């Protein structure tokens, strides 16, 4: 996040901190871009729940998006109960219970290996039929084409367990399969997809035409200002024209990109090797991607170290020594009680939060600029911590 979008609400209006605040107006802006891609190409777009699962906004999202993709039975159930459109499910492996549960909620089940497909094919079809439902089956392929810069987020890295490689792809074992799926991008532009499609067509081209659909996965930063939407539309339209299949995209980040914030309060300022402001949030508990990716989130009104008059290291209230968001500079000294607003905190933050150290989860709030409304839709307390344990 580069901080290009001004904060459209007064942080002082947030009742208590820490709190995630999602700007519904910016969500609608992103949906407008995705709707245009759908109109221009005829593709279908799913919400990746692993990235953004704020179900109170599903009524807004389903006006544009065609459904959800889920990585577990619980995500699939949430999609079925709250989104109400298509539900696609993929996991690296399923248990028998997973398959039975998914038969009650999912419309598409994607298998990661031919072994899983053979083990559960008949169960998935029979159980869904027993429930009066129809299940479409698909398999995930591994294009063996890496575009990712961070190995932990590269499904095509050497040794990856994700997807069937061409050497292991046995067409005579694909009876009843209606779709192919791949995923290899992470926060990337359309040129990366263009090269990936070329690799897929080279390795799996003969098998595409017999499918009903192909899912290009996620990682497409479609709503980023510098994203090449024209190239994306050309790649998708060309693929559909050449192969006669439906194309799906399943972005998580692009749906909520730049639309969410984490509002925090300064609890203390101490002198370490440099001034250190301790916040009422926690990096590993509330924004773990900062450590996992890793990256330095933007804060409204801040600069790089030394850029502004007063530089601080910012950290959280947990016992972890590495509970640090980074170093930032400000025009004025920080004081206890000051509010700081981290940007681009809607995706891969709320879905990853935890209660490490018993630190309470942030409130979840919505800001709707059309009505100048800012309100909390979910608060968390002791019971949320206790009921996770035994």
Any descriptors?
390 residues; 2 domains; 28% helix; 11 helices; TIM Barrel; 8-stranded mixed β-sheet; 8-stranded parallel barrel; 16 strands
Summarize the structure.
The chain is of the alpha/beta class.
Would you kindly provide a written description of the structure presented here, covering whatever features stand out?
The chain has 390 residues and is of the alpha/beta class. It has 2 domains: 132 residues, Lyase, Ornithine Decarboxylase, Chain A, domain 1; 214 residues, Alanine racemase (TIM Barrel, Alpha-Beta Barrel), CATH 3.20.20. It is built from 11 helices and 16 strands. The strands form 2 sheets. Strands 1, 10, 11, 12, 13, 14, 15 and 16 form an 8-stranded mixed beta sheet that branches. Strands 2-3-4-5-6-7-8-9 form an 8-stranded parallel barrel. Helix 4 crosses helix 5 and helix 6 packs parallel to helix 7.
Count of β-strands: 16
Distance between the termini: 39 Å
Q: Look at the helices and sheets and give the structural class.
A: alpha/beta
- Approximately how much beta-strand content do the residues carry? 15-25%
**Rg result:** 22 Å
Overall shape: it is globular
Task: Give helix % range.
Answer: 25-40%
Largest sheet: 8 strands, mixed
CATH architecture of the largest domain: Alpha-Beta Barrel
What do the pLDDT scores average to?
96
Instruction: Spell out the helices and strands N to C.
Output: EHEHEHEHEHEEHEHEHEEHHEEEEEH
How are the SSEs placed, and which strands pair?
Blueprint lengths: L18 E5 H18 L2 E5 L9 H4 L5 E4 L2 H11 L2 E5 L5 H8 L4 E4 L2 H17 L5 E5 L36 E5 L8 H19 L4 E3 L13 H15 L2 E4 L3 H4 L3 E12 L3 E5 L3 H4 L2 H4 L17 E6 L8 E7 L8 E5 L19 E6 L4 E6 L3 H5 L4
Parallel strand pairs: 1-15, 2-3, 2-9, 3-4, 4-5, 5-6, 6-7, 7-8, 8-9, 11-12
Antiparallel strand pairs: 1-10, 10-11, 10-14, 12-13, 15-16
